[in-house]
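Same chain as my last thread, 388 residues:
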Amino acid sequence: MGKADFLSPKAIANRIKSKGLQKLRWYCQMCQKQCRDENGFKCHCMAESHQRQLLLASEDPNKFMDYFSDEFKNDFIELLSRRFGTKRVHNNIIYNEYISHREHVHMNSTQWETLTDFTKWLGREGFCKVDETPKGWYVQYIDRDPETIRRQEEQARKKKQDLDDEERSAKFIEEQVRRGRDGKEIEENPVFTELKRESEEEKVAFNMGASSSVAGPSKSSSALGASALKAAASSTKRKDTSSDTRSEKKKKSALEEIMEMEEKKRKKQSVRTDYWLQPNIVVKVVTKRLGEKYHKKKAVIMEVRDKYGAVVKMIDSGDKLKLDQNHVETVIPAPGKLVLILNGPHRDTEALLEGIDEKNFSATLALESGQQKGKRVDVAYEDFSKLA
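reply #2:
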């Protein structure tokens, strides 16, 4: 067995020594070779292969430095996203895990001199959220995956819709309470007066039965008293019945309004769909994935594909793009313009925009077609858009 054999004691000892991290001053990044001692590093620097690598680097040093910097940045961010996700963690912990790999790109071959400079650069470029504490710098990865962004936007949209429904219900209940209080104040309160006789000679008698009768003046006075009692009783009874019927009618109307609102809400939810794209409507591009050229620019939907996708034509440049409905939003024109209702019980109906309620995020529309032409309805912002 020769000395240079794979299973020789010397070869095994060399492999054992080469495991793990070695001293950085004896590492050549251009050749990606780690030397174990100063003598080995000196011999490597005198080798012909090392001299060729130096000649190549001297021709365009910025090219090699940019390459090593990109490799270091990509490996560092990949380790951060895979190992810690979006958690806040100390930058030194990530760096120690990164350099534990033998084949990693060393920082002294990149454009950053220290780990602090690299951390600040990550924050400026928007790759991570960085903050400085007495214990050092902390980083937090920003997940820009399109699927994650779409899921977050969907959750935010659902949360906003739930809040809008809750606010409308709360406002309706407050309105009913206010109307009930106003109705109670309007009701007439009974006025009680003291019984007084106009003259001392007048006698007051009560006829308790049909057979009982009093002769003389007492007879007329008893008849007068009986008629007065009957009139007072009938007026009191009429007041009570009128107040009861009025309160019952008021309670019944409030109950009916609540039932009608619930019925309308159920009908509205039953006819709503999760897709709303329609041809010949104006939309606004909200995604940043296409660059600043198309961001916040308006377009016209030319064709709808598979309910959730559409081919749009940009109004400014005339370019045609294929976008998902999550990448666009509806456009609200000025009052007096025609719009198309995209969702709800009046779906696919043209209407005229009469007014905008910014507080409730809705608008008042007058229907221009269908059996209910001329009817005014309140529609949320996301359920209608401007017609091209």
